[in-house]
Design brief:
single chain; 385 residues; alpha+beta; Thiol Ester Dehydrase, Chain A; ten-stranded antiparallel β-sheet; two-stranded antiparallel ribbon; 12 strands
């Protein structure tokens, strides 16, 4: 199925009008009711999330390993917060206009431990319009999400942004026609190497061997992390790890509240289907102008978190992580994540390291650039717990 062959699935075909933009801008500063998926960190919800992103770190999975860490118990991956809500997700304004997750910028303040209950508050912080080769008229909406625990302590603040595109305009420009029609055969050696890299990840975990700030130099490269070739199983596993999904009456009631997010799928006997099924159905991906079934933005950004945690070890802490989604990552694609230390400083009693990250596919195209600041234990002072 290519973008040129997109079937008429009767997805809602909203348009971006001046009036709609005026109404959208009037909502800047509005607080939104957050989604409610996984709210409590338990050994099961954490393990499930790790399975959904392929994270093999014993600190998040094995009580016997975690109890001897500085934390004394299992702690969640930094981006376990995605199991609560996805900052920047499109749930408001511009009815029937498709949204793609475009990026997140997290500032973390504390780890999530077993027993923590996470709450979240969303606030619309900005609306911007730009020209787009993909859809002609592009709208970017920005949301700030504040995550707190059961004690009211701020766990993280995330900036999230998404791009909104008219579905018909995205199809008509056919920007990804060549990519959609291209042969996606990958060299079997590449596939075998990717699988080997993933199976042997535990060998490259820093774990309980502290990586000290003094031992890191500008120009150091982090161990590569590989994800893929992407499959629909991977995509489904991420949804399961985030506790997402509604069926039957639960889905129908949600569709009644947000009708512009649903359509009747002729391939399912005319039953209601979610417009975001481009992440799992090629026919829907073609209808929204995508080159094929594609991953979730928070899924890809979660891989950056795993990449950093493997490198920094159990005593490290991610203070900031930013990821920008630049290209579609479609089924069959491999993602190679690499990073380089570009700065280090000792600030307010903390040893900080700045890292540039880049994720590329098997064609050498950048699909997710990022940057991070990591706090490492320092020999010169007693590190903070």
């Amino acid at each position: 199925m290519t973008t040129a062959e997109a079937p008429d699935l009767h997805l809602p075909e909203g348009t971006i009008t001046d009036e709609a933009m005026e109404n959208l801008r009037a909502r800047i500063g509005t607080q939104l009711r957050p989604e409610r998926y996984i709210r409590e960190a338990t050994i099961d919800t954490i393990t499930n999330f790790c399975n959904g992103i392929g994270d093999l770190n014993p600190l998040h999975r094995e009580p016997s390993a975690a109890q001897w860490s500085r934390h004394g118990t299992i702690v969640a991956p930094h981006l376990f917060l995605y199991a609560r809500t996805w900052p920047g997700r499109t749930r408001f304004g511009l009815a029937g206009v498709h949204g793609f997750h475009a990026g997140n910028d997290f500032t973390f303040y504390r780890r999530v431990r077993i027993g923590d209950r996470i709450d979240a508050v969303d606030k619309i912080t900005g609306v911007e319009e730009k020209p787009s080769k993909f859809s002609g008229r592009l709208v970017i909406t920005m949301i700030e999400t504040t995550f707190t625990n059961q004690q009211g302590e701020v766990v993280a603040v995330a900036q999230g942004w998404n791009t909104r595109h008219e579905r018909k305009a995205s199809r008509d420009t056919n920007k990804y026609k060549a990519e959609a029609e291209a042969e996606r055969t990958i060299d079997p050696e590449q596939v075998l190497r990717a699988e080997h890299m993933q199976i042997t990840e535990p060998e490259r975990l820093r774990g309980d061997n502290p990586r000290y700030w003094e031992d890191v130099e500008i120009g150091d490269r982090l161990d590569e992390l590989v994800r893929g070739p992407l499959t629909t199983t991977d995509i489904t596993a991420f949804l399961v790890g985030c506790g997402r999904g509604r069926a039957h009456g639960a889905m129908l009631l949600e569709a009644g509240r947000h009708s512009a997010h649903y359509f009747r799928n002729p391939d399912a006997g005319g039953a209601l289907e979610y417009t975001g099924m481009g992440h799992q159905l090629g026919s829907v991906a073609a209808q929204v102008g995508a080159p094929g079934v594609y991953d979730f933005g928070p899924q890809r950004i979660s891989w950056l978190g795993t990449f950093l945690e493997y490198w920094m070890g159990d005593d490290g802490f991610i203070k900031r992580l930013r990821g920008e989604l630049r290209r579609f990552n479609v089924v069959g694609d491999i993602t190679y994540i690499n990073g380089t230390v570009v700065g280090k400083r000792f600030e307010d009693g903390e040893g900080l390291v700045d890292i540039e990250i880049v994720g590329t596919n098997q064609r050498g195209e950048t699909t997710i650039p990022g940057l991070a600041t990591v706090r490492l234990p320092a020999k010169r002072v007693a590190d903070k717990p």
